[in-house]
Every structure is written in C-alpha cells, then in structure tokens.
C-alpha cells in the first residue's frame, strides 16, 4: 500500500496545536455558521471543483468532522481549519456546524491552515509559496523552520518559494492551471521576464510538455543578445583621447556617470601617463 502524504507531514494538525490546548478534552459544540468569519490566513484561493459534491453530502448527512475555530470576541469566531467544510456547509444551507475552539496565535492559525491543505494535497504551488512567504514576512520564520513545521525538506520549501520570482501574470497562469509547477520551474532558468512570457505563450499555444519546455529554454539561453551600438560621440572621444595618449582607451557611460579605461603596456608607459597628468592644471573643487 503506498504511503499517504500525511506521513510526510509529521503528526498533522495535532502536532501544530499548542500543548496547553490538549490538557483538557476538546469541547465540541454546535455554532451558528453566521457567527464564524472566514480565515484571513487561508492560503487556498482557487475554486474547489468538488465543493458542490461535498455540499450535497453535508445536506444529507450533516458536517461529520468539527471545524477548528478561535474566539475573536464573545460569540464571534474565526475559522482556523476546515475551510472546505465551512464553504460547503454555507452552500448546503446549514445553519449550525460542530466546532472546537482553540487558543491560537496568528502564526499558529496560518500554519494550521497551510498544513490542513497540504495534507489534502489541495494547494496549488503558488498558493503554497504565498503561504510560506507570509510565514517568513509576517512572523520572521526561516525556510528551515517552515520546513520543520509543515513536514517538508528545506530544499522543497526553497524550490516552492522560487516560484514567486515569476512575473505576476505567469503566477496567475499557474494558479489557473494553464501551466504546471514543472513548466514554471523550467521558466525560472530564464533571467529575463520577457523571455519567460515568450516561452509561456509557446507552452500554452503548442501544448508543450515540461521536457519540451526545458529544451526550448536551453536553446534560448544559448542565444547571445546583440551588443547595443555605441554612441558615435563616445567613439569619437575615445579616438581623440587615444591619439593624444598614444594608447587604447575606452569609455563606459551610464546615465550621468561613467568609467574611463586607459591601457598601458609597460611600467615606463604608465609612468609617462602619470607625469602628463601631474603636469596638467586641474580646476579647484572647493
């Protein structure tokens, strides 16, 4: 029998709940659905295709597994885990659902929401990456700490986070499942966003496999971009100075700043340059 994904996620949701919450048996009670607000830490944003099927089951049998919530104010709760059941219950017109109330920090709430979806293999790679990014940005966790909490290797977390380097519109393609994570990782080998978009268009237009995409990317990386033509005025200045000094010079000009390179071929020639510079009368900078 193949191992389930849960085996790779430690002890699951229970491992992330604070120990103090297990000192007493959890109390399950029925809570009005309208008293539960959606979680701001829910990583899943794409529509669940099987939600209507679950709603039909809930309409017939009710919600069999309690939702995990945390109390915001007396009588008002925030959903922590059970987003899919919560949405299906609303769709089914259920008024009351079973809940367990836990005392959780914002960080613990986000971790639980992530792990719940990862256990169900329910997160799109971009949703997963954005969830990890929130743990890093809002709570200061390292990749190593995130990996330990969600039961993955640090390399797996790092590779998922790299997807956020893709242009926003390509991230949306991944969310909409027009591209796979394999396609997206192949695109990351390209440094230029316009090249990523060019290959993305080819993937969608021609239905390229990941292997075909990797081959296309490899070919593009071998192409050397043409060097931009040098300003004729700079070329003229280079030539004028080269004639004056009797050696090769080069200007590298960027905006209002630049660099002048003077080549010399012997210590004697270098000393001659220095002597000429010392003889010049430079304007005062004071």
TrEMBL record:
Key words of the record: Chromosome partition, DNA-binding
SUPFAM superfamilies: KorB DNA-binding domain-like (SSF109709), ParB/Sulfiredoxin (SSF110849)
GO molecular function, one term: DNA binding
Domain called ParB-like N-terminal: residue spans: 29-118
Protein's organism: Thermodesulfatator atlanticus
GO cellular component, one term: chromosome
Biological process according to GO: chromosome segregation; positive regulation of sporulation resulting in formation of a cellular spore
Protein name per UniProt: ParB/RepB/Spo0J family partition protein
Family per record: Belongs to the ParB family.
NCBIfam families according to UniProt: parB_part
UniProt-listed Gene3D superfamilies: 1.10.10.2830, 3.90.1530.30
